[in-house]
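REQUEST FORM: STRUCTURE PREDICTION
Request ID: SP-0412
Submitted by: Lab K.M.
Chain count: 1
Length (residues): 1513
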Amino acid sequence: MAQCVQSVQEFIQDSFVPMVAVLCSEDAEKVTRKNNLNFSELLRPFCRLTSEGHTRDPNNQVQVVKNLRISVNNVVARPSVPTSGVPGPAQRRLLSEVVSACQPAEGGVANVITAGDYDLNISDRSVKASVPWYSDWRDTLTELSTSKHYTATTPWFEAYRESFLQSMPASDHEFLNHYLACLLVVSSSEAVPVEQFLKLSQEQHRIQHNGEYTNPKWFIPNTLKYYVLLHDMSQGDEQRADSVYEDMKQRYGAQGCYLLKINSRTAAVGADEQIPDPWSQYLNKSSLQSQDQSEEPAPAPVVVNNTAVENNVGGTPEMDGHDSAENDGVSINSLDNTHPLQLDTASDTPGSLDSLRSVAVETKTTTVYTGVAAGTSHGACLTLKDHDRLRLFIQEFTFRGLLPHIEKNIRQLNDQLVSRKGLSRSLFSATKKWFGGGKVPEKSIAELKNTSGLLYPPEAPELQIRKMADLCFLVQHYELAYSCYHTAKKDFLSDQAMLYAAGALEMAAVSAFLQGGAPRPYPAHYMDTAIQTYRDVCKNKVLAERCALLSAEVLKSQAKYSDAATLLIKMTSEDSDLCSALLLEQAAHCFINMRNPMVRKFAFHMILAGHRFSKAGQKRHALRCYCQAMQVYKGKGWSLAEDHINFTIGRQSFTLRQPENAVSAFRHILTNDSQQTSTQQGAFLREYLYVYRNVPGVCEVALPQLPLPCINSSATRVYFGHERRLAEGEKQAATHVSLDQEFDRDLAAMWQDLEEQVVAAANRGVVPATFYPTQCCLNSQTDNLRFPLAVVEEPIIVEVAFRNPLKVPLVLSDLSLLWKFTLKDFSRPQPQDVMVGDAVTISNEKEAITPRTAQKDDIIATEVIPEFYLSSEETRVARLKLLPRQTGQLNILGLVYNLASTPSTGDSTINSNASQGPSATEGTSVRGRQDLEIQGPRLNQTKEEKTSVSHGPDRRLDPTITPPMPLLEVFFLQFPTALLCGEIRKAYVEFCNVSRIPLCGLRVASTHPDFFTFGSSSLATPLTPLSPTSFENCSAYKTLATPSGATPGSVTAVTLVSAADFGSGGGGVTGPGTGGKRVVEIPLGEGTLTPGESTQLPLWLRGPDQEGVHEINFLFYFESAEKGGKISHRVLRHTVFICASRSLSVRATACRSNTLPEEEREEEGKNGSMLVFVDMENINTSEAGVREFHIVQVSSSSKQWRLHKCINPAEDKDCKLTSRERGKLCFRATRCKPHEATSKALEKYTFADLSLGNEQIISSTTPCADFFFRRCQSSASWRPPIVVETQGRHSRSQGAGPGGGAEDITGVVRKCNEVDLDIIVLWKAFVVEDNKQVILEGQLHVALQTIGKEACSLTQKEEAQEMVLLKFKPELPPPMTRPSMEQLSHLIKTNLHYPESYSHPFIQKSLCMVPVTLTLSNCSLAHVDAIIDLRHKTTSPESLEVHGSFTWLGQTQYKLQLRAQEVMRLPLRAGFLHAGVYNLGTPRVFAKLADQGAMCETSQQTATPALIIINST
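STATUS: Completed
RESULT:
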């Protein structure tokens, strides 16, 4: 149970006090009425004695009486009516008033109970601290836990209990509330006061002894009469009063009368002086004492004093929201079989709006009780000295009159009982023994028949014992009282007088508990038996309830909370909702006061108590109970219980005119992930909307926050710019960025890298420090730490993710964004303080309160979505648009919309009426807002940030609106989606400036720079179609007719071209920081695009070398012609997917020619020649309908070599390859002319075209040369870094000369083997599409690097090389840098010159000597030492079978040194003994670089046998 202000002992003593009646004359009543009080009310604050009294028991032992209180009441005589054990309507109504009047005060001291893991705030502020919307409840609990009070108080229960006990009707089976004495009060202003005393005395005697009155009841026949002379000090004659009092003392004795002087001042004089008013707290309770306590309508009571009843009708204004006190008592006796948690009435279905409306109407008609006690001052004529006189009067009356009277009656009763005991009790007991009587065991009470109707006569000895026990109890003589109660109990049980026995058991248990010293254990079974008897046998609920209240307090004081709770719960019934509610609440408090608190039981019983409070009309108490229980159920996953509690809290709050709390409670139901059915959720939503609309002024000042639908703020995306047009006729627009694309972190990094490259290229190779990558679409994964930049007159699209958590659809109407805007002029630079002072902040929040009003479109044009439908449990995004008209700082705050539920009948009321204006949905929708609050990323850099949880800003909703910028749109015409590998296709690009600002500096960067080219601006205009209409089957190449007399396969053109002409740096590899490899400047006519202007440019495409689907990304970069803006540049993205199919596979090998330079007949071959073998295979799988490939031309490009002629041209002009067919071509390559090798020509490439058909393609122009150089760039950019590094070493070794160290030697030797010749194979393919033959054309590149090493057009080897480079540990540099044997074998080229056949007359001369010249040619740029050894013989038997044996004559070994690129001839002689075929290739040639050790020597092996035929003549 809750903590009480009084101790248990004080509570029980105050429950049973001596009763004193008052009879006043009319004049005396007038004297007291000056103070707005009657005489009994005048005495009430002073009825507790402040000093101890003493009595003597029958054994003459002194008994101390402490803290005694007496009850003084007016006499109201009522006719005899049968009494009932059920409280009457008047009593129930007044008890309800007492409870409703006692409410927790706002802002009182809070009591926090720590029960297990819960901190329960059971306090005056519990309504605030426990409801779901009270956000700081944890802080409140922590703050309040320092309070000294750790248990809750329930003053309404104490007030109910006190009023209940005081209002109990007097009963015949006990005497505790019978009157012991009567005060006869007469005014001193009476003419003959003694006569008045005589009249009052006779009136008292008539009321007590005349049989027609049952009330009031009197304790003993000889009632104490105490005569009081009341003197008015302000009017009466004090001497006359003293003389009358002296006469009274002579007549009634000094102990039987008293002179009471009051009214020491007049009311007018005393108005200024503040005198305490101790009467107000008692007057509200006085009405319960004198009201009609009978249930049946009775004749009008006999009023002894005219003002008695009037003065006792008082009350306080109604504080609850329920109708009136009658409303509290109407349904108390309802015995409907409803579930305890069901709502109040059958019509109170959760979805019933009518119930809420009816409640709302009822709350407007509250009845206010008015009475004399309300709003009037009491004791206005009394001074503090008068207060002391009243206190002294009560003390004198008690000590001199009442206590001696009680003591005398105890002695008399004791003497009577002792004198009767010998005869009567022994006779009774003997008779019972003879006839089988005896002690009735207490266990058989339940089996006894209903003998509660048994009545004893007043003089019965059993009643005398009970009377003596009650007297002893009233004067705190508990030991003697217990003995008497125990004796009476036995007698009553023997007589089966169950009502009397129950009363004796009850008081015996209480007396045992109250005994001092070494008390007996509390006999709880006495109380249980008494309660059971009262309730079940005697059918007296009032007495049973009193018994339970007493016993529960005693059990609680002994910490037997479980027993107390069980007893209280057992006492609940359907008879009285108010009583049951209070008992359930106390039982709930018992559960949390146990040693191991049972918090969930506390919450459950608080719910039951709240339900019963609600049925009893106690709405405030019901709300408090539900709120306290909510503390336990909240956040534990019991969603259905939470929903029920919140729903009830919402209804009760609305009934009590607390619409804000009601809205918050309903909101909590809707924000949780509800487990309710769709019907229930729809009902909750409708009630929420109805309550919302009835909140006064909710939408007039500011828009309220709505709970539905749920918004995932972190998923909000913001897009800056116009939504792109996807296609316009045949034009295909650039894809750019759209909200339909998913964010990919790797792609974003790729775009950022491209943008950095193009920005660096535009800024002379350096990325500015202020560079920040362009982000057109912001989301939760982008970097949102900076304020994003938007452009004026370009829309901002905000995508908001809505989720409907309910199982019922929602309709949002008039949905738009809320924003705040600060005007700033960026065109004129100003100091910061001036700009801040200038700043004008504008918002659309006021305009958004009323839908369909002008929304400041001159500053920010706000798009409004008329209707947005969310089906049950749907997640859907809405895209809302803002169009800024002025520059400044924009802050997007949130959303504003009308929330409505769809009609349950299925008809689309809201939809059909949406066009009629706001009034159409007025009854079902509410307007509110939701803020977009995005939490930034968690900070995790410093130690403080890592140890705490702090978040950075997220500024995606705070764009800065900048001045106008140019806007580019790009369209592609005739852009293919599928290409053959290496296929060349011509398309067209259209650039449109759709802004009002001219743009310039147009560039493009791509992840695949070898895929496209815009052509070279430095060369002559290519002879290809300039417009898409003239395309058809025209070639994309620049072509010329082959001269008529030319031989197929011969050189038709040789051109020198600089790589810089095609956008490439010197050597084809640019520095890593410039971004020049992937960035191309797009040629515009005058360098700018004016507003509204568009231009078309040709774009050549080449299919990727690898088959498959390729993703190719373009980034177009452009700047404003007006410099100095906040945005330095803008970009436009485009992504295409190209499907590449197989075409041809080309492999090439270079072999050294054995002919010496001076032996070349042609001028071109004087500088050296080489053989190039080209293998081609048709690897197309015919998926694209390709019939055959024609090799129409082979071209070369190199700084040192060029193709000279084709050695084996086919018979017909074209080289055709059908499916899976192979072809082989052999070419002779020669070095470039020496006079061309100037310093300037070192940077130029020689292009040589060998046409195999009747048409020559000029390979040195666009697009052939473009793709060649781009192919060089892309391959060079992916080459391993060590290659570039070695090239650098080689260039140094050229100037160092021989012997420059191991590194130089390696470069020299490798240079000797390098070819660096690129072969370009140009082909045509014949494809059948839609029964039409289409000619496709393309080019493949093969890069020959080293002599004897095969090169391929496909890049598998390069990819494999790439994979090798991906190592986790750095490789150590190779320890040995000397040249390899294979490289050394190519240092010297050898050639034998001899006659193919030689005739010799062996008959005449047996030895044939043939002159042979061995030509040695140094292929390197360093000095080489050579050793020629002629002693080598062919010893293999296979060769001996074919070739004969011969001998070299003369010197057998030569040591020579060859300078760089020197040619030396060595004359030799071979000797033959007979005719035959001989192989002269037997000399062994050893070569080493000068100044190197022998370990570098290697043999020079001749590639082919040198056969000579010796004929005999």
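NOTES: The first helix runs from residue 8 to 15.
Reviewed by: T.R.
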